[in-house]
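Chapter review: from sequence to fold.
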Amino acid sequence: MSQRGDPPIHTAYDPLPTNEIGMTQPLDHIHFVTGKLAEHAVREQVEQMAKRVPFEFTIDVLPITVAALMTPKWLFRNYEIAPTAARVILPGSLAPHLNEIIDHYGTRIECGPRDIRDLPAFFGEKRKNRDGYGKSSIEIIAEINHAPRLTLQELSVVAMRYSQDGADVIDLGCSPGYQWSQVADAIHCLRDLGMRVSIDSFDPVEVSHACSAGAELVLSVNSTNRDAAVDWGCEVVAIPDVPDDKKSFCETIDFLSKRNIPFRLDPILEPIGLGFFDSLLRFADCKKENPDARMMMGIGNITELTDADSAGINVLLLGICQELQVESVLTTEVINWARSSVRECHLARQMMHFAIAHRVPPKHLEPNLVLLRDERVNQYSPAAIASMEAAIRDRNVRILNADGEIHALSAGVHARSHDPFEVMQQLLSSEMGATINPSHAFYLGYEMAKAHTANTLGKQYEQDQSLNWGFLTQLESHHRLKRD
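The token string follows.
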């Protein structure tokens, strides 16, 4: 490792990259900047990365213990760019101030990951081409179940949340056996908020009032209510009388076609254990037989009726819809494990649109859908932990995890165990125990609980940072790292 002003460390590569006429091309020289405590970990990661990319590098260890405490003002006083550096990578904690730093040093400056263990992902993301990502072709219809039970204010709140999470159409689910006298008021209310609305009911009177008020889609129509659809002036969803009754399905399709009633097809997705696979085959057959017809899949029959977190299920179902060219999905968020289904479907439709359009697996495309576990877990090596232990001179406690254990490091103290209670007991029994006041103990307990959760699930833990729960992550205030 080189300090500031030392010649660069050159890493040997075999073979070196060459240009089109066979001459060896010079490697990029990347200059990394860090603090004293992270020196060993930075060197480990950079040396490994330089063998794979490759590049030449120098590492500048500035006179500050914790790199995350650097401020632009402090950096300007203590750092000058090495003239040989093609790129200078600063600690990721400086990212919010990058424009100010570039104004001072020039465009060679960039910020790396907040955690040096994420350096491989940082370089991988630089190479990944995701041009055009974010497009989608599947419409999300989000159902508010038992809508008649809610006040107009309550309906508006739920509808606004669904809309903000990515829903294109708000579906008002009615209650069988009860005729909703205020359905028109509800439709007007949501339409006034700028929302598109559908109605989910088999009651012809209820549906008629909804369509007159501005509903644009009716879920659903079969032999029991298709005669009334002639007067609604609205698009409908055609379904079979019972899921495997193709005859009744074809009769309803024919009825609607002859009367020029716009429709989309839903062969009915059945729950797992009650015909799920056969219903998927019906969707595929329906698309082949009606290639120009629009289709809808009600995916709530799977997410709501399967004992599993909904995100992975929604991703798979949206992938099936994208491949089959099913243009719309109906989802809901009734049961707790599916409470974020609308947002999951929104992210999933973007990922599946990109993957299928570019013929690539849907991998490393949408980190916000990796919720329970992290994409990768980069832990400190025993050598890096030992180096940190030797370098710490203050009474602040650094918490990290490795190999299923929680480590708490301070000057002259190294507590470690799989059990956070044992780690805390070791700290209290050490020479620093008398200095741990209630506020500090609460903070340490909270951080070790996060570290224990990360060990349990296989997540990345970084002290004073939120655990990454994908799009469900809630950012935390920093309590340990305070800047002057």
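Two observations follow directly from the output. The CA atoms of residues 95 and 281 lie 50 Å apart. The chain is about 35% helix and 15% strand.
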